[in-house]
Design brief:
The protein is mostly helical and about 325 residues long. It has one domain (about 5-320). Helix content is about 70%, strand content about 0%. The chain has ten helices and two strands. It has helices at about 5-20, 35-55, 60-75, 105-130, 140-165, 170-190, 205-230, 235-255, 265-290, 295-320, and strands at about 95, 100. β1 and β2 (about 100) form a beta hairpin. The longest helix has 28 residues, at about 295-320. The protein starts with a helix and ends with a helix.
């Protein structure tokens, strides 16, 4: 059981961050976690294990996370194509009839899956179990079981949601989503591995945290406030979120190539990213579920902050022993 502890932690953290800390799901519906753990948890473990087994690690991970996002939003819940998904009218702003998607929503939702559904929970779990950070956590049989769970849950969720929301994407849309997911997976292994060769120095850890928090917050605000408060043109919102997403990935690549990148820097980047959801989740939760859910959401945010502080304490303690 001790050997599987990182897997179990990641199984729980992925849906907690992605759906509940984000404010997408109300804490009153915490029982839904039982249904989300197999999907988000299995997806996060698969993304992490494939990235580590390939030897590419965080060079491949964002593209694998992108594939997860495309599968979820394009095939499972089909929010990329549903004009009235859960009554949210996600395609009303920036709709492209020729593609059947809304450009702002597509960039935003895939971005949050890369950064917060996958990257932040995986990074936090790897820091909690730093001695095993770069090694696989599952054997071949275990990985196969996780893959089967993910495929089975994804298939069941696809059918259930289609019946629940009374919407089914066209065959061409589903095919395009599958192809896009495969392309994203291919890109994970297309970037030359020598890009990981360490060069130069990195920024101070505190500045890494500030940059991660600022870029992540800007990404959330450009879509949310840019759409509903500032009333920017959809082209500007799309360009802004896409530019910020590319900038964050570029920042991450530069970090990977730093010869002085340490667990302290990894913690700083993870903390900056998680703190974005700690503040923005309150707004999303209130907008979707009302103020009645705020106390329970505050408890979750506080628990995540305590986990973050504990992880920081572990990181500093281990650095002192090194």
């Amino acid at each position: 059981m001790k050997r599987l502890l990182p897997v179990l932690v990641l199984y729980l953290l992925a849906p907690l961050v992605a759906e509940f800390l984000s404010g997408s799901m109300a804490m009153a519906n915490l029982s839904a976690l039982l249904h989300m753990v197999p999907f988000y948890g299995s997806g996060a473990v698969l993304v992490r294990e494939v990235a580590r087994r390939s030897g590419r690690g965080w060079l491949a991970l964002p593209f694998l996370a992108l594939a997860f996002g495309i599968i979820e939003e394009g095939i499972v819940d089909q929010s990329l194509f549903n004009p009235n998904f859960l009554g949210a009218h996600l395609l009303a702003f920036g709709y492209l009839p020729s593609l059947g998607i809304a450009a702002p929503w597509t960039v935003f939702v895939l971005g949050i899956h890369i950064l917060w559904s996958m990257a932040v929970p995986i990074a936090l779990t790897e820091l909690l179990f730093a001695s095993r950070r770069t090694e696989p956590w599952l054997g071949n049989i275990g990985l196969g079981i996780v893959a089967l769970i993910y495929v089975a849950i994804a298939a069941l969720a696809t059918v259930f949601l289609a019946k629940y929301v009374h919407f089914w994407a066209t065959p061409s849309q589903l095919e395009a989503s599958a192809i896009a997911a495969l392309v994203a997976m291919g890109l994970a292994f297309a970037i030359p591995r020598h890009w990981l060769k360490p060069t130069g120095r990195t920024l101070p850890a505190w500045l890494v945290a500030v940059i991660a928090f600022a870029l992540g917050s800007a990404f959330i605000m450009v879509y949310g406030a840019g759409t509903h408060v500032w009333h920017w043109p959809w082209q500007l919102v799309t360009a802004g979120t896409l530019a910020l997403l590319v900038l964050m990935q570029g920042f991450g690549l530069a970090a990977l190539r730093s010869a002085t990148w340490s667990n302290g820097h990894r913690y700083a980047a993870t903390a900056g990213g998680l703190l974005v959801y700690c503040w923005s989740g309150f707004g999303t939760d209130a907008a979707l579920h009302g103020l009645a859910d705020r106390p329970a959401h505050a408890v979750l945010a506080a628990a995540m902050l305590l986990l973050l502080l504990f992880t920081g304490w572990l990181t500093v303690r281990r650095a002192g022993k090194a």
